[in-house]
Each structure stands twice: as structure tokens, then as C-alpha cells.
Amino acid sequence: MKSEPKLIGAGLLTAITASLCCITPVLALIAGTSGIVSTFSWIEPFRPYLIGLTILVLGFAWYHKLKPKNEIDCQCETDELPAGKPGKPKFIQSKMFLGIVTVFAVLMLAFPYNSGIFYPNTEKQIIVVDKLNIQTTEFKISGMTCASCEEHVNHEVNKLSGIVTSKASYENGNAIIEFDSTKTNETEIEKVINSTGYKVTNKKEN
């Protein structure tokens, strides 16, 4: 099937595009450019459609790869074989290549749920001298679209001295942060969150 490599390429492209908004925070972590993490957040509303398209395209490619071939199909595939290698298809037309692309696509689509493995543990043991100094503030944040965004916010906030806990939630659009007010403050925390590319829209002390 001459269009098979195009189908595989299309499936790979849609899988990567669907995951761009979640891959970017990890790429930003690796590159040390925290401010670009929300660059592709606009893709998130289209993610379900891109996932569906990926499954449809790769499913169609597998259907054509596994269906019984008639004589016409066999003749077409023979015509596509490299010169001097009768009976041996190109690697890009093989089931192995399609399998590799399928596995890669699945990993891309599942990326938001396993992105935490890329973030080092920044939690630290805090010695609280006076519990009266411990303050809890809810920061309303815009721009977070998946679990990868949560991980990035928590990672950056936990770099600050005096952070006891940081629990970001893209579903609630917030981060509930517990900190020692003698070591850091709301302004510093807000500045760090904003530096990621996401924006604090409101904050409320609990």
C-alpha cells in the first residue's frame, strides 16, 4: 500500500501534536527555560480530537497491514520492493516499524500521566520553629492544562526556601501552598509561579 508510510507519519504527527502542551513543561525543565511551559496550552481543547484522529489513522494502517492480501495487493507490494531485494519489504513498510510508531504514539498520548518521572524530588524537610509562622494560601492559576503542568508548578515552587507543601491542580486551576512566612512570602511565590508561564489570577489566605 503506497499510502501506508503517509498514514504512519500522520499518526505520529497527530500523537506528538496532541501531547505538545504536556511535553513542553518537561522540555522547559531540561532546557532551563521555565517561561515557555504554557506556549502550547492553546492545543489542550483540541487534544481529544487529536487523540481520536491518531487512533483512527494508526488503526487504519494496522488494518491494511494485517488484512489478507489478494493478488492485486501482492503485485502492488512487489512493485514497491527495493531493486535487487525481491520478497523483502522496506523497513518503513514493515510491521515492526508500524509497531514502533504505535508504541511511541501511545507513550506520547499517555505523557501527562507519567511526566512526574522527569521531575526530581524537590521536597525537603522543613524545621518549623513556630507553627504560628506557617501560612496556607490558595493561588488561582490560569494556563494549566494537564498533570505535567501541575508537576512543573510544584517543582518550581518547592525550590523556594520555607515551602512546606505545594499542591497544584490543573482541574481546579489552583495551587494550595503551605509555607513558613519567616522564610518566604506570597509575593515571592507568585513571582515564581508567573515565571513558569502560567499566571496567578488571584490569591486567598486560608
Automatic annotation (TrEMBL):
Stretches assigned to the HMA domain: 135-201
Name by which UniProt lists this protein: Mercuric transport protein MerT
Family: Belongs to the MerT family.
Gene Ontology CC terms: plasma membrane
Matches recorded under InterPro entries: Heavy-metal-associated_CS, HMA_dom, HMA_dom_sf, Transprt_MerT
Any GO MF annotation of the entry: mercury ion transmembrane transporter activity
Keywords (A to Z) from UniProt: Cell inner membrane, Cell membrane, Membrane, Mercuric resistance, Mercury, Metal-binding, Transmembrane, Transmembrane helix, Transport
Membrane topology, from the record: Multi-pass membrane protein
A family per Pfam: HMA
Species: Flavobacterium gillisiae
Function: Involved in mercury resistance. Probably transfers a mercuric ion from the periplasmic Hg(2+)-binding protein MerP to the cytoplasmic mercuric reductase MerA.
Transmembrane segments: 12-40, 46-63, 96-113
Domain of life: Bacteria
Location(s) in or outside the cell: Cell inner membrane
Gene3D superfamilies linked to this entry: 3.30.70.100, bacterial mercury transporter, merf
